[in-house]
Amino acid sequence: MRDIYLERRGNGLIIESFKHFKQMIMKLIGPKPESKAEFARSYRQMRIFFWIFIPIFILVLFVDWHDNDSKETSNNQSATAATTSPTPEAGGNPVNNCNTLGIEVHGELVTYLPESSPFGNGDGEETQTASDDVVASIEQAQDDDSITAILLEVDSSGGSPVAGEEIANALKRSKKPAVVLIREMGLSAAYWAATGAEKIFASENSMIGSIGVRFSYLDAVEKNKKEGLTYNTLSTGKFKNIGDPDKPLTEEEKRFIQNDLNIIYKNFISAVAKNRKLDQKIVGKFADGSYLRGQAAIKEGFIDEIGDIKTVEEYLFDKVLVYPEICW
Question: pLDDT tier at 149 (50, 70, 90 boundaries)?
């Protein structure tokens, strides 16, 4: 209202000034004045008025233009904010109000997915999760100001130890709160991945742990004999064709593979002990491939709390003071 009043007052002053200016002009170009003195007086008044009025007139026009331009800019900003800004309740991403990144770690863990991978196509193929994708998502979240926390939902029996290690390390590097919720199972390499989180939640019925390493292969030697097939091979080293299903493993090859498994096994125990802040002897006690259920896993320090997604949301709310809106 004050702006409208000032605008009307300014316009009124301009109109009155124009009327006065018109009267002086009419004195000059109208009927001849009675005396030269009267003419000179009118001329001086017009010059004084001209030098005073013109700058004021220009100033009023500039102020009016600037005010209108500011109003237009403000209106555009308000319209943009109305369509893109997050709601106060969500406190998150301008596009979808997301403030917590949810990442699903389901099925077999692999380091990458080839382009032809079915990736859970519903045709009976096993779902796979690539550490490449998980790590990239965690790292991108670090630079996204709308993301306040990261949640990994784990439901996997394991897979590649390298994939598990990469995910665990990415979680440990996160500058934002990163937690894990284990659903049906978090086993083997999937548990390795989970240990990188600052807090692990699971159900009382979840399967947790299964620390161990295995290697298996098919031996088609007897089958080939029955079918009359003869196995022939050429290689540059005695271990080059190790694990070939058309030949049995030699004792030396078995020792070679077992040594590999032992190295990964020790690294697994060491990583779990370090990430979970446990003594290696305690971890080693359960590093026999078996798993623990919820309460037993808490007792041994393998997880932190029994709960579900709501428990996780409450924890994150207390942590970042914004109720989590999870985007998967």
Answer: very high
Question: What is the number of residues in the chain?
Answer: 328
Percent of the chain with pLDDT over 70: 68
Q: Provide the sign of the torsion angle of the four alpha carbons 117, 120, 121, 125, taken in this order.
A: positive
Q: Is 216 a catalytic residue?
A: no
Residue 240 known to be catalytic: yes
- Strand segments, DSSP code E, in the chain are 100-110, 128-130, 149-159, 178-187, 199-202, 207-209, 291-292, 305-306, 326-327
CATH assignment of 100-327?
3.90.226.10
Q: Per-residue pLDDT for 153 more than 90?
A: yes
Element (H, E) at 31: none
- Give the start-to-end residue ranges of the domains of the chain: 2-84, 100-327
pTM of the model: 0.69
Q: Residue 171: which of 145, 155, 190 has the closest Cα?
A: 190
Mean pLDDT, to the nearest integer, of 184-201?
Answer: 98
* Catalytic, out of 223, 238, 240, 299: 240
Q: Is the dihedral of CA 221, 226, 227, 228 positive or negative?
A: positive
